[in-house]
Specification:
Layout (H helix, E strand, L loop, with lengths): L20 E5 L1 H4 L5 E2 L9 E4 L3 H4 E4 L2 E7 L4 E6 L8 E9 L6 E8 L7 E7 L4 E6 L6 E2 L12 E7 L3 E6 L2 E7 L9 E4 L11 E10 L5 H7 L8 H24 L5
Antiparallel strand pairs: 1-16, 2-3, 3-6, 4-5, 5-16, 6-15, 7-12, 7-16, 8-9, 8-15, 9-10, 10-11, 12-13, 13-14
């Protein structure tokens, strides 16, 4: 799947960051795309912006586009997530949080429909500490008792891995906390970004970019690479084309992907 984003030599600068990558949404690569958030990995899990105002929620932040969530009712619904079920996985995202409105504020995750069913989500607690909530199976829940407290208004890379041995959270490429893990027992459900299916008190407040799901647990070194900067997996194209050429290249790809009409 490197075709669109590998270098002209057919090589990715960081090939391991594409191995096992199931879905990827990256506003800093695509720029604004209206009410849709496009899956750049497989194009299977296109997100629908819900309760979001497209003129104001696609924002430039630190020189790159991101999505801005209001913490009240904004979210992105990526649909039925059969291929995103947490059976050994990595969640990865860049976030710029505001003060959080609720005890649990979902960054991203899979949910079969409520706290009593299969759920596997990456969240921020109200104290701006990372949390991983896992239900519907024999899991340990990593519940916001890690090392790092994030600061409002700053960009962070956050990640979570799940294996039979452990659930591990990372902040800026460093392990935050690890607890006994497990593999989720799931059937079907929805993958949401910025909220949790069925909850009115789990909306994330802040900006988000470079969101990805892997079907394997990335190594600590791979997570450190992802934490270097937003959109690092796409840099082979950027390196070959130069910044202006890369933007022109993506503009053409976006027109093909969404049928034109957006700028």
């Amino acid at each position: 799947m490197w075709g669109k984003f590998a270098s002209r030599r057919g090589e990715a600068r960081y090939p391991g960051l594409w191995d096992g990558r199931v879905a990827a949404w990256c506003p800093s690569v695509t720029g604004p795309t209206g009410t849709r958030l496009y899956d750049l990995q497989s194009q299977r899990y296109q997100g629908t912006l819900t309760n979001m105002d497209t003129p104001t929620d696609w924002v430039l932040s630190s020189g790159q586009y991101a999505l801005d969530f209001d913490g009240v009712n904004d979210y992105v619904n990526c649909g039925t997530s059969t291929g995103l079920k947490p059976t050994g996985f990595t969640y990865s995202a860049w976030i710029r949080p505001n003060a959080q409105n609720f005890a649990y504020n979902q960054i991203m995750g899979w949910d079969a429909g409520g706290s009593t069913s299969a759920v596997c989500t990456l969240l921020l607690k109200s104290n701006l500490k990372l949390a991983i909530y896992i239900a519907g199976g024999p899991f340990g829940t990593y519940d916001g008792n890690g090392v790092f407290t994030l600061s409002s208004g700053l960009w962070y890379h956050v990640a979570a891995t799940l294996t039979p041995a452990a659930a591990v959270g990372y902040v800026n490429g460093v392990v935050d906390r690890s607890v006994a893990g497990g593999i989720a027992s799931v059937s079907t459900g929805l993958f949401w970004i910025g909220s949790q299916n069925g909850y009115t008190t789990r909306y994330y407040s802040g900006q988000m970019d470079d969101i990805a799901v892997y079907n394997r647990a990335l190594t600590a070194g791979e997570i450190r690479t992802l934490s270097r900067r937003r959109g690092i997996a796409y840099e082979a194209r950027r390196q070959d084309f130069g910044e202006a050429g890369f933007k022109a290249y993506w503009s053409q790809q976006r027109t093909q992907l969404i049928g034109g009409g957006l700028r």
